Amino acid sequence: MAKTPEPKRTISLKPCDGDVIEVSPMIAKQMQTIQSFIEDDSFIATTTIIPLPNVTAFQLSKIIDYLNYHSNSKAVADNVKESTKKFDEEFLKELEHDKLKELLHAANYLNVKEVLDFLCQAVADLIQDKSVKFVRKFFGVVNDYSVEEEEDIRRTHAWAFEGVEED
Amino acid sequence: MATIVASIEYLAHEILLCLPVKSVLRFKCVSKQWLALISEPKFCHLHTLSLYRSSRVFPSFLFLAHDFSSTCEVILIKTNDVSDSSNFRNVEVPIGTVIQSCNGLILIKNITFDLSDVEYFICNPTTNKSVPVIFPSKHFRNSLESLFICFDPLKSPHYKLVSIGYKYYTSECYFTNMILSKFNPSTEYVCNIYSSETDSWVEPGFTFTASDAEAPHQRNAVYLNGVLYCYMFRLEKFCCFDFETQSFKTCPMPLMMENRRVSYFGESGGFLLFVLPSSLWIEILKLNVENFEFSLVKKWESTVYEEICSFYHVFLPRE
């Protein structure tokens, strides 16, 4: 029996600003947007390169790092919690506000639930004690309240406006 | 552009679900769109469930709504985690007395100044919102002996009210009826149920006779796992209200509680709690309602003061 060459096992992803990045099908599977590409009939694993015009190489590699770490750490039971926590902290430490926000959008575009949940919690932790002004700026939301309307909400929930961090 | 806006809204929704109540209330101020998002009943329910899932729900406060005062004094209970609501205080509530608290909602009763009328309110102190309880008729309202609020966000975003009223109510005065019933050992009561989901009362309800004229009373009532439990202090037994069959059933009591006085009946950490004082010991028992097993939480030698004192509030950490 003739030996067929080993089929290519990785999926090729092309971010908007860099070289093609190869990922394992296990990792690609967790990105819903990629998964729907793969399931498409015209997809040929050996030749197709999936273009990602909305994702930078930095963002893509961050997301892959996260998925790689977390899919490996699931296998080992002991001390996982401690080291996972450390990994997550390190992961976020490298991200400034803008980068965190952009990464969130990239994770949303790729539709990768695990990273999306993690980043949503990270943003929540960041803004939890922040002022309304900070949040408007962070999300690029324009204040459409009149002075009276805003004052009314502040009065109704006065306790929620205490103990807020300085911007 | 449209997709970016849509994705921001979706992401804002997901992020808000991760935040504590205090932050969510503050961010109502961000924009009208955020206010609409946060005020959406579906969002509120999802947010409550996410708080339960991440074990961020625990007894945190005692509310002391004084008669004839429109603000409510809040006493903080020191638990391990009070970080997100430690400034929660002086909630504006309708005038009256807090007669029951149930998973974040409180029921307030107010007897009007001339003693001729009674009004009830349901209040969410966290959001500072309250609604009056609307009864089918004035007669219905004035004949009430007890009103219970039943709310469990893990089971439903809607609450229910269970009312117990005198069947043969005639007088216009609330107190006359109350006093008359005490002298009639077999007073007949009518029980009706209101659902906030349909915003309607089920009429005509059902009639029952309470022995020794002790109808279930909200001060001694606890809503747990979809069942309303009431302790009858005079009868020394407790009963539960079954919403399916719409009837009160007497619950079995263990031997250790026979002929013992109960000075407090409440719920905490998913258990029903009983405080049993005697001249020698004070005992706190907990009841697991899943298997109806009683167990001792704490026992200590009593002082004279403790024996007569009945102002206990017991809190257990949720397991």
UniProtKB/TrEMBL annotation, chain A:
One of its GO terms (biological process) is jasmonic acid mediated signaling pathway. Pfam families: Skp1, Skp1_POZ. Pathway: Protein modification; protein ubiquitination. Residues 10-72 form the SKP1 component POZ domain. SUPFAM superfamilies: POZ domain, Skp1 dimerisation domain-like. Residues 114-160 form the SKP1 component dimerisation domain. Keywords: Ubl conjugation pathway. The keyword GTP-binding does not apply. InterPro entries: SKP1 (IPR016897), SKP1-like (IPR001232), SKP1-like_dim_sf (IPR036296), SKP1/BTB/POZ_sf (IPR011333), Skp1_comp_dimer (IPR016072), Skp1_comp_POZ (IPR016073). SMART domains: Skp1 (SM00512). It comes from the Eukaryota. Belongs to the SKP1 family. Part of a SCF (SKP1-cullin-F-box) protein ligase complex. PANTHER family: SKP1. Involved in ubiquitination and subsequent proteasomal degradation of target proteins. Together with CUL1, RBX1 and a F-box protein, it forms a SCF E3 ubiquitin ligase complex. The functional specificity of this complex depends on the type of F-box protein. In the SCF complex, it serves as an adapter that links the F-box protein to CUL1. This is SKP1-like protein.
UniProtKB/TrEMBL annotation, chain B:
It comes from the Eukaryota. It holds the Pfam family F-box. Residues 86-259 form the F-box associated beta-propeller type domain. Transmembrane segments: none annotated. Residues 11-45 form the F-box domain. InterPro entries: At3g26010-like, F-box-assoc_dom_typ3, F-box-like_dom_sf, F-box_dom. This is F-box domain-containing protein.
